[in-house]
Amino acid sequence: MLTNIRNTRIEWCDCDPAGIIFYPRYFEIFDTSTTVLIEHALGMNKIDYLKAYAFGGHPLVEARARFRLPTRFGDEVAIETALIECGRSSFKIEHRLSKAGTLMVEGFETRVWVIRHPDDPKRIKSQPIPPEVLARFRRSGG
Amino acid sequence: MLTNIRNTRIEWCDCDPAGIIFYPRYFEIFDTSTTVLIEHALGMNKIDYLKAYAFGGHPLVEARARFRLPTRFGDEVAIETALIECGRSSFKIEHRLSKAGTLMVEGFETRVWVIRHPDDPKRIKSQPIPPEVLARFRRSGG
Amino acid sequence: MLTNIRNTRIEWCDCDPAGIIFYPRYFEIFDTSTTVLIEHALGMNKIDYLKAYAFGGHPLVEARARFRLPTRFGDEVAIETALIECGRSSFKIEHRLSKAGTLMVEGFETRVWVIRHPDDPKRIKSQPIPPEVLARFRRSGG
Amino acid sequence: MLTNIRNTRIEWCDCDPAGIIFYPRYFEIFDTSTTVLIEHALGMNKIDYLKAYAFGGHPLVEARARFRLPTRFGDEVAIETALIECGRSSFKIEHRLSKAGTLMVEGFETRVWVIRHPDDPKRIKSQPIPPEVLARFRRSGG
Predict the structure, then answer these.
(1) Exposure of D29 by Cβ count < 10 A (0-12 exposed, 13-18 middle, 19+ buried)?
(2) Tens digit of pLDDT for each residue in A35-51?
(3) Ordered strands of the B55-57 beta sheet
(4) Would you say residue B142 has pLDDT above 60?
(5) What pTM value is reported for the model?
(6) How far is CA A107 from the centre of its chain?
(7) Cα–Cα distance between A4 and D17 in angstroms, integer?
(8) Strand spans (E) along A1-89
(9) What's the gap between Cα C57 and its chain centre?
(10) Tens digits of pLDDT across chain C (142 residues)
(11) What does the pLDDT look like over D81-106, one tens digit per residue?
């Protein structure tokens, strides 16, 4: 199974007047973690894998998070990301954000593989994941 | 049941290089809708209801969204928000974001009522929802 | 001179742990105001004027703001936007954000007109403003 | 003179439908750089230096940026930050963001030292910079 760990810091700009992280920021953090996971799997930066597969991205059909404990500005956190399921044109990602070993937030994403619409490059269209990508998504490591 | 509808527009700043909304922005939109719902229920702005109840906010323990169709910059959308469940210290909110009558995104939030921690005003602490707030949350209308 | 006024509300999600707006949010507000100004001038939504002129946007070469008084969540504000200068391929915009008639923030933007690069649609390239756009930018009203 | 360099990466979530960074994100990046600069100068995390000086933050009275070249998602950038002027209650910061040695963006901030208002902890009030902070701001290093 494809996995990745990265570290980041919760910043002042992520926090709200209650002094804790404004929760949509977690989804931004998770989105970046998913990008990094796929970049590692494909051995290319996102800008290059979008070009390589004439593709528009991997938008979400569902997102979910459980917030166990709040984080605050200055908190150093680790995000463990794993590809937990991979279908024909969609895949599921799980994120576990922890601080000093304590699980703070869990995130779940269901994403689809989309390409630029052939008739209008501004539109997107879901598509089977290319076989070579599937192969890399399904081998262990990362 | 407490409900509210508000209108907004998806802006350039909400959208990503795929030309569609960057999904964490939906959670920002939902958060504002929840604020507006509670402001209407309590007849006070958030800044005032936080003062009135010595309270730190209504952070989330769980958030979820289903993205049915993408929205893009310039899209005029309506968000219908409803308080669908109200417990002793937590409550559930549902959001339905639609464009020209078509449901685009559904959002679900489970929130808790928190006050400033008596020993440290920078920390927060969950607390039963005050009876007068409960009464307003549970009556119909909005 | 092209001008526009729009109203918005500073929201919880715009504010930081000091309880006031996190200042980069003003630049987001100004960016949306500029979009609205140009949409009114051209009689088209941004998504349509980008298509009409095969163009990539109007990125900034310089931005500046003076923060006179802080705004907080719940503040209803008005933003007056004016095109104050228009050159061959660049233009200047001024924003005045006020609350109940009191000027809170002034913003200044210098922007250039860019099109998609002919050799690579992912890159952008500065370009003279089309004559019909210039004509609309330079007539009074809005 | 107090200086600091940090590295970050421009992410998908920072970019707009033109595929380049949405410029207010630079001000977020600069804000974090200023925090890191002051943390290093004072030897404390922001959350701790706010407590140590009963203080509300260092909001801006003026911000400015010159955007020389656009950055895009995946770009690794370095931000050099320097305290270039320090008065009695205000100070000026300069940021130079570069990619592979090429200067992309310059940022300038004028900030004031504010404390929580004695009559209302939700309000802020400008204040002379404490002497021990001034001493650390004015010595060289970082």
Answers:
(1) buried
(2) 999 999 999 999 999 98
(3) B55-57, B114-117, B120-126
(4) no
(5) 0.95
(6) 9
(7) 28
(8) 3-9, 55-57, 60-67, 76-86
(9) 11
(10) 899 999 999 999 999 998 999 999 999 999 999 999 999 999 999 999 998 887 778 999 999 999 999 999 999 999 999 999 999 999 999 999 999 999 999 999 999 998 888 787 777 788 899 999 999 998 855 4
(11) 999 999 999 999 999 999 999 999 99
Angstroms from A28 CA to nearest CA on chain D: 7
Out of D73, D121, D122, the one facing B17 most closely (by C-beta) is D73
- Give dist(CA D98, CA A132) in Å, integer: 35
Inspect the interface and report whether the beta carbons of B12 and D17 lie closer than 8 Å: yes
CB–CB contact A17 C12 (8 Å): yes
- Distance of residue A119 Cα from the nearest chain B Cα, in angstroms: 16
- How far from each other are the two terminal CA atoms of chain A, in whole angstroms? 8
Work out the number of other CB atoms within 10 angstroms of the CB of residue A69: 12
Residue A77's DSSP bridge partners are: A8
CB atoms within 10 A of CB C18: 24
Task: Please state, in angstroms and rounded to a whole number, the distance separating the CA atoms of residues C21 and C79.
Answer: 15
C/D interface, count of CB pairs below 8 Å: 80
Q: Which of A106, C15, A33 minimizes the C-alpha distance to B61?
A: A106
Residues of A with CB under 8 A from a CB of B: 16-20, 22-25, 27-28, 31, 56-57, 59-68, 70, 114, 122, 124
Q: Which residue type sits at C35?
A: T
Of B22, B27, B32, which to mutate for an interface test with C (greatest number of C Cβ within 10 Å)?
B32
Residues constituting chain C = 142
Inter-chain touch D114–C18, beta carbons under 8 Å: yes
Q: What pLDDT score does A140 carry?
A: 57
Facing D67 at nearest CB: one of C60, C65, C124: C60
